[in-house]
Amino acid sequence: MGTAENGAATWKSDLVLALLVALLAFAVDAWAGFGQLTDAGGDNDNLLRLVEVRDLLAGQGWFDLHQYRMGLEGGFVMHWSRLVDAPIAAIALAASALTGSRPLGEDVAQVLWPSLLFWATLFFTARAARSFGGGGAVLPAILVGAAGYYFIGIYDPGALDHHNIQLMLTMASLALLLEAPARRWAAMLSGFCAALTLAVGMETVPYVATIGVCVALLFVADPAGERMIAQDFGLGFAGVAALVFVTTVSPSAWGAAQCDAFSVVQFLVAAIAGVGLAAIASVEPAAGSWGRRLGSLAALGVVLGVVVAVLFPQCLSAPYGSLDPRLKELWLDHVDEAQSLFTLLVRDPARVAARYATPLVAIILMALRLRRGGWRRQDSLVAALLAVAFVVGVWQVRGTTFSIAFAVVPLSAWIAKWRARAETSSSLGMALRLAAVWLVSMNPVWTGVAAAASVALEKDKPVADGGTTDKTCEKKATFAPLGAMADTTVLTISNLGAPVVVYSGHRVFAGPYHRNVAGNLLALDAFLGSADDARAIVEAHRVGLVAICPGNVETLILTRKAPQGFLAGLLRGSVPDWLEPVSETKGSPIELYRVKQAS
């Protein structure tokens, strides 16, 4: 009884401590005026998620994931999950009912949702750190984690994209699995969270697979201690995968394979893997010896491989392997979060420290722990996830969000160890060592170092004006003139697609989404071709406005690609006779041109 009571007490204390830090972050954002609500910083995903929520509240079907105001006529089907839309919509609906204002309700949802996720992520980080490094690691985990998560920006006001909930669910799955030997229900809940984070988006496949493999291998090594954990995790994982499949996939689409979204592919793999793991852990002939356990799990792996290779071979190719070469060259190769470590080393070397330093320090700590011996169950789980996330981050910088988070666990244990040493010694040297450990573990410190290095490397470049001019067209106010005009189809670059849709009633062709191939190619054809080519597209698709943002990086990329093209001509002031400039937008961040109606 005492152990259970102590466990409940630590849960409450960790929850309260995480809440206090989350409230502090909330207060800082409030003091700054929640500026991200009016300046999205170019994050199209947050804006388009808000559009999805609005469409759902306006009556668009639960299974209907079309984005009707982007792409060619009729729109295109997004690959995102309603599992994220639903809670945001619920908050917005409740807040609108309480305040009597739908816009205010939306603002409340945009602030409250990421704040709740920030709190939950901090809590599960603290739980993981407690299991890994003891009670002394909890405070460092919350402080180091809060600093890292806050400055990464995925929990900012307005952060409706799914990366924040994916990180929270993945950290929850890890924390619960670390606690599983002491808590009967933890392994099944860990399986729940692993299935949910997979259902939200395919970006977490590497981490979910790593967790599953770790559960299986721990069972091979220690059947007495891990049998029930493997069984419960497998059942929880398969059960939630089945529940998600029937509740988020239309019955008419149950047989349709989608590699980039939760569909029959992911459901079958999760069901076979989860049920298979639980069965192997439950049946004595399969679990009797380590050889049988390993052989049974290897057979399960072969079955999974055959299922995917035979039934869904298309999902074995590279994620963007079939993308049109023009979109790869002019869009994907310039997506910030899709860059590799090697690309960053060439293009933005200062940023490497901000994204890779703390995970690398944590990996070194884990290697030293392995070298000293005494390797534990907790070490295997944390090290595996940290290593996989680091490798993903080397491939694409987006993976560093997870590696920075996983690094908090060993880093907090490291700090706790030095804090314990400092308590027994009052020497200046010990205090300086402890301070150095804290600084090295704080990701914002490395971010600051990277920023300083960037300034030093670019000291000969012109300094930005630092004023309020929105040269890259990222602020809500910039789109006000467009929003005041009668709804029509707007020809603009993909970076402006989501802002136009969220800040107005217009529709657009282009948006930075890999499923919107036809719409993006049409916009490229118009902007890169001649004025006559653009006119043919405008007339064929009943375009009413052309919107350009001279300072946006995509505009610069397209004009360099086609210096004699339609877009480059507009930037030079060469306006074809079928367009008329909207005079009040001349010189504004967004310059508008009306399409003259044929007489």
Q: Which structural class matches the secondary elements? A: mainly alpha
Share of helical residues:
55-70%
- DSSP strand (E) fraction? under 5%
What's the tally of helices?
Answer: 25
Please provide the count of β strands.
7
Indicate the radius of gyration in whole angstroms: 26 Å
Short description:
By secondary structure, the chain is mainly alpha-helical. It is 65% helix and 4% strand.
Please give a handful of descriptors for the protein shown:
25 helices; transmembrane; 7 strands; transmembrane helix; mainly alpha; disordered N terminus
Question: What report would you give on this structure?
Answer:
The protein has 25 helices and seven strands. With about 600 residues, the chain is mostly helical. It has a five-stranded mixed sheet, with helices on both faces. A two-stranded antiparallel sheet has the order 1-2. Helix 6 packs antiparallel against helix 7, helix 15 crosses helix 17 and helix 17 packs antiparallel against helix 18. It is globular, with a radius of gyration of 26 Å. The N terminus is likely disordered.
Q: Could you give the topology of this structure?
A:
Blueprint: H1 2-31, H2 44-57, E1 66-67, E2 76-77, H3 82-99, H4 102-133, H5 138-152, H6 163-179, H7 186-200, H8 205-221, H9 223-248, H10 264-282, H11 284-287, H12 290-311, H13 325-330, H14 341-347, H15 349-372, H16 377-395, H17 400-423, H18 428-441, H19 443-457, H20 480-483, E3 489-491, H21 497-503, E4 507-508, H22 517-528, H23 531-540, E5 543-548, H24 553-561, H25 566-572, E6 579-581, E7 591-595
Parallel strand pairs: 3-4, 3-5
Antiparallel strand pairs: 1-2, 5-7, 6-7
